[in-house]
Amino acid sequence: MRTDWRQTLWWFIGATALFLALMAAFRIQLGEDHEEPLAIADVAGVWQGSDGGRLTVRADGTADLERVTRPGPNCGHSTDAPARSYTGPATWAFDTYPDERPGIRFDYQGPATAQLCKVYLVVIPQKDSAKGYLPHDPPGVNYIRSPSQQN
């Protein structure tokens, strides 16, 4: 009976050691898959949306947003305003929307209440251009920046 108890203990220790080794390898693998940080060259330029929206991103941290879907009702827009989009100036900074890839955040004052509004652009760099999307946009709306449109 003693040998069964000892054998079970060794099996338990071995299985625990294997589990811990696999978890460590998994964590190391996750750490190696980090993405390169975005650079101004990855985001500066004109982004054209498939829904007609347009984002003009300048290297100095300023931007112009045209026909960009409002991020929500608490963004400082009048509740009786029929427009569901914003057109006007903004500033931008590198930021990451929760649970998304890196990108940029646009900040602008809501026209009705001057409350700060935030719009995120998730950026997916590609070889000769970049594409992205606004997480609050309807599914299927994408933005594309081509090198020939950079400022």
Could you describe the 3D structure shown?
The chain crosses the membrane at residues 9-28. It comes from Streptomyces amritsarensis. This is Secreted protein. With 151 residues, the chain is α+β, with helices and mostly antiparallel strands. It is built from two helices and eight strands; from the N terminus they run ααββββββββ. It has helices at 2-32, 40-43; strands at residues 45-49, 54-57, 62-69, 85-96, 102-109, 116-125, 130-133, 143-145. Strand 1 (45-49) and strand 2 form a beta hairpin. The protein is elongated, with a radius of gyration of 24 Å. The mean pLDDT is 81.
Task: Name the descriptors.
151 residues, single chain, transmembrane helix, eight-stranded antiparallel β-barrel, alpha+beta, transmembrane
H/E element string? HHEEEEEEEE
User: What shape does the CA trace take?
Assistant: elongated
Task: Please give the number of β-strands.
Answer: 8
What fraction of residues sit in β-strands?
A: 35-45%
Stretches where pLDDT is under 50 for at least 5 consecutive residues are none
Structural classification: alpha+beta
**Overall mean pLDDT:** 81
Strand order of the largest sheet: 1-2-3-4-5-6-7-8
Q: Compute the gyration radius: what is it? A: 24 Å
Oligomer: single chain
Specify the biggest β-sheet.
Answer: 8 strands, antiparallel, barrel
Counted by DSSP, the helix tally is: 2
End-to-end separation in angstroms reads 79 Å
Percentage of residues in helical conformation: 10-25%
Keywords: Membrane, Transmembrane, Transmembrane helix
Region (Disordered): 131-151
Protein name: Secreted protein
Transmembrane segments: 9-28
